[in-house]
Amino acid sequence: MSPEQSPELFTYWQYPCVEPIGYYRKGGLHPIHIDDVLKNRYRIVNKLGYGDYATVWLVDDLVSGRCAALKVLAADVSKVSEVAILRRLKKRQLNDGDSTGQEFLVEYLDDFKVEGPNGTHQCIVTEVLGPSIDGDDDLDEIYDDEQYPIDIAKNLVAQVMRGVAYLHSCGVVHGDLHVRNILFRIPGIEQMSHQDLQKYLGEPCKSRLSRKDGKPVTSTPHEPKYVVASPEWLALLQLCLKSPEAVRVKICDFGEAFLWDGNPVTTQVHTPSVYAAPEIILHDDHVSPAVDVWALAVLMHLVLSGRSFLFNSPRGIKNEVLREMVLTLGKLPDRWWTKWEDRSEYFDDNGSFIGDRRKLPPVSGKFLKIHSDRMEMEELEGLEKLIRMMVSYGVTDRISAAEVVQLTPQSWMKSNHKGYKRVVN
Predict the structure, then answer these.
(1) To bridge 71 with a disulfide, which of 78, 124, 246, 307 should be the other Cys (CB 3.0-4.6 Å)?
(2) How far apart are CA 293 and CA 401, in angstroms?
(3) What is the structure's pLDDT at 11?
(4) Spatial separation of the C-alpha atoms in residues 269 and 287, rounded to whole Å
(5) Any bridge partners for residue 111, and if so which?
(6) What are phi and psi of 125, to 5 degrees?
């Protein structure tokens, strides 16, 4: 689901690594410039990223003297529960002390609101984290085979599952668990100034607004005078992976999170289709922590395999994801089967495939898509058993995140880090 765009702003050129200019409108994003100071405390230093409903900035905290990340939400979504979720987690973390699992959640620092030409915007301040474990196109610059070595991959998923288990113990469901919401912790960040970080991020890349028709730009208060591109992450990713034994990640972005008290919750969750449980894709009336367990299974398979989704659709098309679920796990339960309006394009009433198998991906219907040179056969068999328990159609039959942790070898949190093909220093 994407936000509405201002029709007048479709005339502007769209720059790479920059949010659509049309998102700057009444109810949309807040225009921000380098060196702006928000709350008389947070000075904008550089851009860190953006999404459909927010921009994220590197800021210099003029009070504490430390760097921080500032997320500024669009006005239309600034009444969501993300701040309440983060405050709840912070309070629980303070009470829990050094409880295992909380170290894998982003550290929340502050929140406030800012008034602007496009409305009132919720702002959230957190610790600065590095790039996501998605790696984008940077992994091929670090590893010869363009994927995490298996020991690092195991370590990454072990940390994520512990973070999810802790989250659920706090009565919080993430609702948007995927690789872009798992960020690396930056080694030595506590001692870094924003100038130190700039050495890895580069100076802010600014571009003036420009019209496609070549006419002069008529400035309005609703959009910024210039846009800032998200940084290149390669140098920082190399830093995060330089010492494999010290690689750490944290779960971030709680914009889709919701509270859970033990009973199914009626809410809409916008998990990406390739990570989404069938109850999300088919708009079941109730969701629970089981949706995170399903997404965790997909994330685990993706990272351990090196790039393969459990239920693949190259463009995240819901019908293709459902097709792969049925080919892999069998026919959906009737309550979901009848909700899937386009099922007859692929299956008969009994769930037998009636399409052209020649048009299917070669791995369709295969459960694990992990090469045997990455994991031993016995380990693959154990992993398949574990993941199958995480993607059961029976929502209450899915194991909990805490059980996932218990059933995962403890050695995954400890890696020997031998046999890497190449790491660029």
Answers:
(1) 124
(2) 6
(3) 77
(4) 8
(5) 124
(6) -105, 130
Widest distance between CA atoms in the chain: 66
Give me the residues of the chain with pLDDT under 50, please.
1, 416-425
CA distances from 214 to 9, 72, 222 (A): 14, 31, 21
pLDDT of residue 424: 45
CA 34 – CA 50 distance, rounded (Å): 15
What does the alpha-carbon distance between residue 233 and residue 201 come to, in Å, rounded to a whole number? 7
Which has the closest alpha carbon to 254: 90, 18, 385?
90
Instruction: Output the pLDDT for position 417.
Output: 47
Residues 384, 367 contacting (CB under 8 angstroms): yes
Amino acid letter at 199? Answer: K
DSSP state of 252: -
pLDDT value at residue 2: 57
CA angle 276/280/281 to nearest 5° reads 80
Cα–Cα distance for residue pair 77/122, rounded to 1 Å: 8
Distance in angstroms (rounded) separating the CA atoms of residues 51 and 252: 13
Distance CA 301, CA 347 (A): 26
What pLDDT is attached to residue 284? 86
Contact 125, 109 (CB under 8 A): yes
Q: Is 184 in contact with 251 (CB distance < 8 Å)?
A: no
Q: Are strands 258-259 and 172-173 parallel, antiparallel or unpaired?
A: antiparallel
Q: Report the b/e string of 333-343 with b at 16+ CB within 10 A.
A: eeebbeebeeb
Residue 44's pLDDT is 98
pLDDT of 121: 96
Rounded-to-integer distance, Cα 221 and Cα 118, Å: 8
Q: Cα(244)–Cα(149) distance, rounded to whole angstroms?
A: 10
CB crowding 234-251: b at 16 or more within 10 Å, else e: bebbbbbbeebeebbbbb
Strand partners, 60: 43, 67
Task: Give the contacts of 235 (CB within 8 A, at least 6 positions apart).
Answer: 199, 200, 201
Provide the token pair at 193: 């100034």
Q: Which two tokens stand for residue 165?
A: 């288990």
Q: CA separation (Å) from 200 to 60, 66, 147, 204, 286?
A: 16, 17, 22, 12, 44
The pairing of beta strand 37-38 with beta strand 42-50: antiparallel
Nearest to 125 by CA among 43, 22, 26, 189: 43
